[in-house]
Task: inverse folding
């Protein structure tokens, strides 16, 4: 077994054991971390693997949150089904978003994704009968439904639900990027014209990856709504699009794991810094600049380089020993 | 460029009729009529700016013609998307080498050959797709003498090896027609000889039916 899979299993084991030893407020933070990690990882499919830089990924998050909130408030769907349905709805909408945005490339693509997010932001504000306007949707319940899923409504149960969504999505993404489809995405990332002239309908691949990425981002949003109990326009605000992009880059784009670490880093730093200073974003900005200049491969890039070196030393020692 | 050629021996694979491309007042390609049959090797020659590359772009769907038709294997492919023209069996290389620089040479040819697989889009698994594509890719690498550098990143190869790799990628697709745009450009006399050595003799026995080249073929005119 490779050292990275061992490390992954160890991390999952720690996360599973976490509720046993952590106080309640830390569990809230950890659940939010898992949800944000999923959100950042979904963006990595576009940014890291296809070089489709989205400035409007918040559209997926907000759409998922509002859809899930609406379903839980206005239908009798149990929690897991509402969450999954919201993710599927977000992915379906994203086919249209992808179709329009992939008419452009580069910065124009980024601007179009931003435009879509802003459009949704405006709709959330104005369509009061569905979205609650500036108040948003409040009092979103974690409904267990008739199938004895009451365990999901507890704090710990919901944490495990979110963790399962993250681990499941990670495994899904990992086999996606290793598949023939993933190889084509890599081709588009490195040289789109060449990929096109080799006989791949690159636009179709890009629309597909936008849909998958948005669906997973929508899943994260759909988990956030019942976690926080509300969905408001802040979940569609452009600032969050920038923040999630920073999480991907600081964590290490094109690695799937990295963005999850980036989200954790962002959340913990925000948590710690904001208790010392109002201007925590300023310091986080400095950290971001530092990463861009000195460690563009991100946290995961630094970690793997470090582990690889240690592992090789260990292997060498073992060989010398025998 | 005005060029006319009438040599209908066997039914033509490529047939250009009145192919024209204008950029404003500039006529890059002017009324080209041409037929190329299976098994033929042709060279398009002309000074810089003659329109050789534009002609290639017109045939492969990178640029839409202002007037005229392109026929491939009897079917009209004028104005079709570049990917669907390639899927018909028409592979090309670029005047400025176009590769996947961070992938190894093997991964480059594998991705090229994968395009020929019906399950090239498979979003999970795909071991058999990769294996098949790698087989075709490795054969193309060997044909062009690149096996020794196969595991190196394409962006780190020498200029000559990069040009050969792009030809190998086109070969890995086992096309019916191969369009090489200035394959010897920027190569030394030795590298030019290396590229022309397996050309076309050892390729003829393969699935490839015809090669076609747009180059000044310096060694030809000397």
Result:
């Amino acid at each position: 077994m490779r050292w990275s899979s061992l490390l992954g299993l160890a991390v999952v084991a720690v996360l599973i054991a976490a509720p046993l030893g952590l106080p309640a407020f830390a569990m809230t933070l950890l659940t939010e971390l898992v949800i944000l990690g999923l959100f950042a990882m979904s963006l990595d499919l576009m940014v890291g693997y296809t070089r489709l830089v989205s400035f409007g990924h918040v559209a997926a998050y907000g759409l998922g949150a509002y859809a899930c909130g609406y379903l839980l408030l206005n239908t009798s769907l149990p929690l897991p089904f509402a969450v999954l349905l919201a993710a599927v709805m977000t992915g379906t909408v994203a086919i249209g978003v992808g179709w329009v945005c992939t008419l452009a490339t580069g910065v124009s693509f980024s601007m179009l994704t931003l435009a879509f997010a802003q459009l949704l932001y405006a709709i959330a504000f104005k369509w009061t009968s569905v979205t609650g306007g500036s108040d948003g949707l409040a009092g979103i319940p974690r409904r267990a439904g008739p199938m004895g899923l009451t365990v999901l409504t507890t704090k710990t149960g919901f944490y495990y639900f979110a963790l399962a969504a993250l681990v499941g999505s990670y495994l899904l993404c990992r086999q996606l990027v290793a598949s023939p489809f993933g190889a084509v995405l890599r081709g588009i990332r490195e040289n789109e014209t060449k990929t096109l002239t080799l006989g791949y309908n690159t636009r179709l691949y890009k629309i597909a990856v936008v849909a998958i990425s948005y669906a997973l981002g929508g899943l994260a949003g759909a988990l956030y709504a019942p976690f926080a109990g509300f969905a408001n326009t802040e979940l569609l605000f452009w600032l969050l699009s920038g923040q999630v992009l920073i999480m991907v880059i600081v964590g290490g784009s094109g690695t799937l794991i990295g963005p999850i670490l980036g989200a954790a880093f962002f959340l913990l730093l925000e948590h710690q810094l904001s208790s010392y200073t109002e201007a925590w974003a300023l310091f986080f900005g400095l950290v971001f600049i530092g990463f861009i200049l000195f460690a563009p491969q991100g946290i995961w890039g630094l970690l793997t380089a470090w582990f690889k070196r240690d592992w090789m030393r260990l292997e060498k020692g073992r060989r010398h020993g025998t | 460029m005005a060029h006319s050629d009438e040599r209908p021996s066997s039914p033509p694979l490529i047939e250009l009729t009145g192919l024209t491309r204008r950029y404003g007042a500039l006529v890059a390609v002017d009324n080209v009529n041409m037929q190329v049959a299976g098994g033929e090797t042709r060279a398009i020659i002309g000074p810089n700016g003659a329109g050789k590359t534009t002609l290639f772009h017109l045939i492969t769907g990178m640029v839409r013609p202002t007037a005229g038709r392109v026929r491939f294997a009897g079917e009209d492919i004028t104005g079709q998307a570049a990917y669907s023209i390639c899927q018909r069996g028409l592979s090309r290389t670029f005047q400025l080498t176009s590769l996947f620089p961070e992938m190894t040479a093997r991964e480059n040819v594998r991705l090229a050959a994968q395009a020929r697989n019906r399950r090239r889009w498979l979003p999970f698994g795909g071991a058999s797709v990769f294996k098949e594509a790698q087989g075709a890719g490795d054969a193309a690498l060997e044909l062009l003498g690149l096996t020794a550098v196969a595991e190196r990143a394409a962006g780190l190869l020498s200029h000559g090896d990069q040009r050969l790799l792009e030809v190998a990628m086109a070969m890995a697709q086992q096309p019916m027609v191969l369009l090489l745009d200035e394959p010897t450009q920027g190569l030394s006399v030795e590298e030019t000889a290396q590229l022309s050595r397996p050309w076309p003799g050892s390729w003829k026995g393969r699935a490839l039916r015809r090669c076609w080249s747009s180059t000044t073929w310096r060694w030809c005119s000397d």
Summary: The interface with chain B takes residues 175-176, 179-184, 186-187, 190-191, 193-202, 205, 208 of chain A (CB under 8 Å). Chain A has one domain: 26-296.
